[in-house]
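Continuing the series of single-chain predictions for the mutant panel. This is the parent chain; the variants come on the following pages.
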Amino acid sequence: QVQLVESGGGSVQTGGSLRLSCTASGSIFSIYSMAWYRQAPGNERELVATIGGHIGTSYQDSVKGRFTISRDNAKNTVYLQMNSLKPEDTAIYYCNAHIYIDPSDEVRYEYWGQGTQVIVFS
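Parent structure:
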């Protein structure tokens, strides 16, 4: 079974930085794409940034210029460097991945991490 585990969340002052990490482990053939989502109380879960897949790297407009997504393929890890954090960034951040499990199976399976809390205070 594949598992995604996030780390790096915390509480920071407005303007501060955090670096989130997510590592996939288990029966993985290859990872097609990885992404970060976030969900604030009362809000829908929204895509923050994605890397890999057909598009490559993309960002939600509200985080462009502040967040950077990167990936270490050898470690099956995706990172989200978050700079110039704002209170509006406060949310639970979830790691997402589409993964090939079996080399003979072309279906990509979706997995989610359990989330890591990010709180940005004034």
